[in-house]
Design a protein that fits this description.
Two copies of one chain form a homodimer.
Chain A lengths: L8 H16 L6 H7 L5 H7 L2 H24 L5 H18 L1 H10 L7 H26 L8 H17 L1 H7 L12 H19 L3
The structure holds a DNA duplex (30 and 30 nucleotides).
DNA sequence: GTTTAAATTAAACAAACGTTTAATTTTGCA
DNA sequence: TGCAAAATTAAACGTTTGTTTAATTTAAAC
């Protein structure tokens, strides 16, 4: 039987890497414990990816792919600016919640060693998403539906809010008053709550009075 | 002559630690390069702080101190909710921009190894700030000045926006279209811009129409 | 069934890690 | 000046790090 449980060793390594990098950081994760948890010999990491550094780059390439297309499709739809904004929030929250481990990894890595090639690689990916969202807001402004707000920082608020919630589930649980031992911040209930808040705030901020 | 340039070795270590932890992360910074940059023997870190782990804890204790008092003072002032909100934004942005290295460190560390004592220590500090801001908004709601918004997530948006801007100065520079090689995201001009955006958005979000 | 390449392994590699030791220098005080 | 405590040093400690090696097993093709 072929199902999701049956992963080849390369995929197995990538999956465990995402989990451990999210939990302990890139530097904080040793290739040995990674291999152990993936039920794989230590040498397999070098064999498949070349090095630990290239492993995380492969992970980023893998996850960053689908994102931009969906955003582009959104901009080409026939929806109104407000509808697009709501769809954007739904999509973005959905995406980050589903891949919260990955987003924790890149949010951490982008804050490291400022002008390394690594930082630039991630920045490039994030910037493409950023530009698509920017188009959406500028279009709404052009149509006189949205106010003349600070577009760049408005996007920073949108992204920043979701990042904050996902950043530390322990901290987020304590913020919204749920028991970190019993509940997860990633449950459907809280996802809806984040969507509602962002739509609410973004509309209050963007729509003309 | 006694001035800021004359630091004893303990202070020197703390200062360099903040710089390197912000740039390369806690795990990514070796005690040896830290000592070298601080013009200090390697053994001095153990001598003054006991261990690398206790060094970063000392750094957190040092920087986290003054923050809560200022927030408390804000809540006890005779200002209106809107005035308090504006003062809060000014103070918070000022604070994070001034200590952007430190904030990068804790924002990264809190996203690591979920339920370690370390994560809980930082969460406790951040939660105290959080509760003070919550009081401010709840007070505004009680006085019927503020709308019935999602208080917790509104604070997440406030904090998340600033964190995003400070997180990676390279990424932020590219977002707001300035040259990362010539300009810094931490200049007065951009600080003002962030303050303006946050006041604008928070008022649009919180005030009754 | 034999052959060839790919996959997998245990072992070893040098380098870097955080920390400790034991000796030496500096400092403050009587 | 003399003495005890504090500060500072170079060297070494045992681990752990990421990576490589060379041998072995597995799989696929002929």
């Amino acid at each position: 039987m072929v199902n999701k449980m049956v992963l080849d060793k390369r995929e197995q390594i990538l999956e465990v890497a995402e989990e451990l990098f999210a939990e302990y950081g890139f530097e904080g994760t040793s290739v040995r414990e990674l291999a152990k948890k993936a039920n794989v010999n230590v040498a397999m990491v070098s064999y498949y990816f070349g090095s630990k550094e290239q492993l995380i780059k492969a992970l980023i390439q893998l996850r960053a792919g689908t994102f931009k297309q969906t955003l582009e499709a959104l901009n080409n739809d026939g929806h109104s600016p407000v509808e697009k904004l709501n769809l954007l929030v739904d999509f973005y929250v959905e995406r980050v919640f589903t891949h919260h481990r990955f987003h924790r990894v890149i949010n951490r890595e982008i804050s490291l060693h400022q002008r390394s090639s690594f930082n630039k690689t991630i920045s490039d990916i994030l910037l493409k998403n950023f530009e698509e969202i920017k188009k959406l807001i500028l279009d709404g402004q052009k149509k006189k539906v949205f106010r003349n707000v600070d577009v760049e920082l408005t996007i920073a608020s949108l992204i920043g809010t979701i990042s904050k919630v996902v950043q530390s589930s322990y901290f987020s649980c304590r913020i919204i008053n749920i028991d970190p031992d019993k509940n997860s911040i990633f449950e459907e209930e809280h996802k809806k709550r984040v969507k509602k808040h962002l739509k609410d705030m973004m509309q209050a901020h963007l729509l003309r009075k």
